[in-house]
Design brief:
- The structure is a single chain.
- With 236 residues, this protein is mainly β.
- It contains 3 helices and 14 strands.
- It has 3 domains: 2-54, no CATH class; 76-153, no CATH class; 158-235, Elongation Factor Tu (Ef-tu), domain 3 (Beta Barrel).
- The strands form 4 sheets. It has a 6-stranded antiparallel barrel. A 4-stranded mixed sheet has the order 4-3-8-7, with no helix packed on it.
- Strand 7 and strand 8 (149-153) form a beta hairpin.
- The longest helix is centred in the N-terminal third of the chain and has 10 residues, at 45-54.
- The protein is globular and about 55 Å long.
- The protein starts with a strand and ends with a strand.
C-alpha cells in the first residue's frame, strides 16, 4: 500500500502472487485503508517464515491454510448440512431447456463451473452433420435456490462476455466513464482485460475482451490497474 500525490491510499497486490490477498480487500474505504497496516505485503512467504524462524516464533513452520479455516476437515458440504438443515433439501438437475435430468441431495453441494462430483450419469450428446454423436461432460451453469434446481450444460455455455455487479466500492474515485482494467472474478482466476463503467447506485458493468468461464453470481469481481486495486463489487 502507498499514498499517491493527492495523499490518497493506493491498495496494491502483495509481492508474493501465490499469497496475494488484495482480491478480498476491495471493499476497504480510504478511511479504513488510512488505519490499515500490511507489514508482510512486500515479502515472499518464504522470507516471512525465515524472519519468524530467526526470532523463534512458534508459527514459523505452521502449515498454510488452504481452505475454510473453521472447517478442519474441509468438508464444507457436511458443515452446511449440519448448520443449516434446510439447505439439504433435495432438488433436480435440469438442462438449459428445463428438461429434468436427475436428482441431487441439496443445492449447497454445487458451484457454477463444477464438472466433477455431480453424480449425474447422463451426458449431453453433441451431434454434428456427417459425424457420429459424441458425448460431452456437463458443467454446472447456474443455481436456482428458490426451485432447488441445478442447471447443467456443455462447457461453452459457461462462457460469458459481460456481467453486472452490485455493492461496488471504488478505492480512489468513481470513474466518470468507461475505463480499462483487468477484472478478476475468482481468487485464483487470471485477471482478464476488460472495460468497466459505473452504473450509479453502487453498481457497475464489466465487458470482457474475451468471454470468461464460470462467472458466478455472489462471487467478487475486482478491478485492477496493473497491480493496484481500482475497486470491486459482487457479481449479480
Amino acid at each position: 500500500m502507498e499514498r499517491d500525490a493527492n495523499g490518497r491510499q493506493r491498495l496494491r497486490r502483495g509481492v508474493d502472487a501465490g499469497k496475494d490477498q488484495s482480491y478480498f480487500l476491495f471493499s476497504l474505504t480510504q478511511a479504513q485503508l488510512a488505519c490499515a497496516v500490511f507489514p508482510v505485503g512486500d515479502l515472499p512467504k518464504d522470507d516471512v517464515r525465515a524472519y519468524a524462524r530467526e526470532r523463534g516464533l512458534p508459527v514459523a513452520d505452521k502449515p498454510d491454510s488452504q481452505e475454510i479455516c473453521f472447517i478442519p476437515d474441509n468438508d464444507y458440504r457436511a458443515f452446511v448440512t449440519k448448520s443449516v438443515p434446510d439447505a439439504a433439501r433435495e432438488g433436480v438437475f435440469v438442462d438449459e431447456s428445463g428438461r429434468v435430468l436427475g436428482s441431487h441431495a441439496g443445492i449447497h453441494r454445487f458451484t457454477v463451473g463444477q464438472r466433477k462430483g455431480l453424480g449425474l450419469a447422463e451426458q449431453v450428446s453433441s451431434r454434428r452433420s456427417g459425424a457420429a454423436a459424441k458425448a460431452e461432460p456437463m458443467y454446472v451453469l447456474a443455481l436456482r435456490p428458490a426451485d432447488q434446481q441445478v442447471v447443467v450444460g456443455p462447457k461453452e455455455s459457461l462462457e460469458q462476455a459481460s456481467l453486472t455487479a452490485s455493492g461496488v466500492n471504488w478505492i480512489l474515485e468513481e470513474p466518470a466513464g468507461s475505463i480499462r482494467v483487468a477484472a478478476q472474478i475468482r481468487h485464483h482466476h487470471q485477471a482478464a482485460p476488460a472495460a468497466v463503467r459505473s452504473l450509479g447506485d453502487g453498481r457497475a458493468e464489466v465487458v470482457f475482451d474475451e468471454p470468461q468461464l464460470a462467472v458466478s453470481p455472489g462471487q467478487a469481481v475486482v478491478f485492477y490497474d496493473g497491480d493496484a486495486v481500482v475497486g470491486g463489487g459482487w457479481i449479480d
